[in-house]
Amino acid sequence: MTAQEFPSWARMIADTYGMDRSEDELADQRAATDLSRTLAAFDEGVPVAGASVYSRALTVPGGILPVAGIASVGVAPTHRRRGLLTSMMRAQLTGLYEKRLEPVAVLRPSEAGIYGRYGYGPATLGNRMRCDRRAMRFRSGTDFGAGAVRLRQPAQARPLLEQVYDRARASAVGWPDRQAAHWAVRLADHPHRRGAATSLRCAVHQESDGRAGGYALYRHSSAPDGSGDGTGVVEVVELAALSRPAYAALWRFLAGIDLVTWIDYEGAVDEPLPHLLTDPRAVRSAPVDRLWVRPVDIGRALAGRGYARPLDLVLDVRDDFCPWNTGRHRLLAQDGTAVCEPTTAPADLRLTAAELGAAFLGGTSLAALGAAGLVQELRPGALGLASSAFRGEREPWYPGGWAFPLC
Q1: The 3-state secondary structure of 59-116, one letter per residue
Q2: How many separate helices (H) and strands (E) can be counted in the chain?
Q3: Tell me: the pLDDT tens digits for 279-325?
Q4: What confidence score (pLDDT) does residue 48 get?
Q5: Whole-number Cα distances in Å, 268 to 172, 287, 353, 407
């Protein structure tokens, strides 16, 4: 695709999601898009389908791994059910493998039922939280630290936000890196995207020595109550903190905003907030799938992450969409390193690439997949051993917006 074709192509992709694209948004998207890694299909010169790869660095258990972020995927309503999506998915994954590029592909699907057939598995959950501000009382002895929360303009605060985010993501499984183009999209505040909400607000937590310890990006909005009147809502777009006191102080700030009944936020499944409150029921939670992961090259993918315990395991993998992965693989993890190579040894577990993708970030457990009949244990004890080795200390989660590679 050429630079001249990009605007009409990007508008077509947006239209498949029921969205518009302003000139400013097109400029932001163009800055983040590598045209050489973007697929486009045209019918008589009109764009009808497309998909992009965005190279990112994702925090995984034990380290950081290059991944192919898949986004801007769409097929025009006039050209559906013609195999265009399948052809694009196959071209993307085959290209990644044959060129030995990123060993793992990730995406955040708009519809959960689409990508399993291409070998993606649900690897992280988001935790949709609705907090009753009136009931948010912090437990006695909560450490709020000696720092202070200050309001800043998001654009002016961006250097501080970048510092906090980069430090936080080093140990936060599921967090991608952010380059300048990604930050531009994350902080974009186009009026037609706000709905009934206000412009973006930014609260920065600063330690007593002046260093930034965390931040919260949020908006105000209003929702109808039972009588038809409006109730105040704070929509937390993103929150990052480098310490327990900074985290607690930011939530105390949010809970102290006047004329607000609800605070909405999507965080981690194991979000600490309910444990800081005297009444944990002040936080209502609903899990929803977020990042889906697909091992492109199983050997390099499994060797590129860490494991919670030593492991010597033979996996019998079936991968109908990427047949080069089909076969037995020996995974040996010890002393902080891992190797995964083809083998003819007897298998310990049998599963598909989608199950490996679901378990890759340490969220979805292999034991749970086994209980669902999706992982078959061939050697007694192998499933429990593998499940505990793949798991991490905290639940993985993805803090970005709807389009993974862009924010």
Answers
A1: EECCEEEEEEEEEEEEECHHHCCCCHHHHHHHHHHHHHHHCCCCCEEEECCCCCCCHH
A2: 11, 18
A3: 999 999 999 999 999 999 999 999 999 999 999 999 999 999 999 99
A4: 97
A5: 10, 9, 25, 17
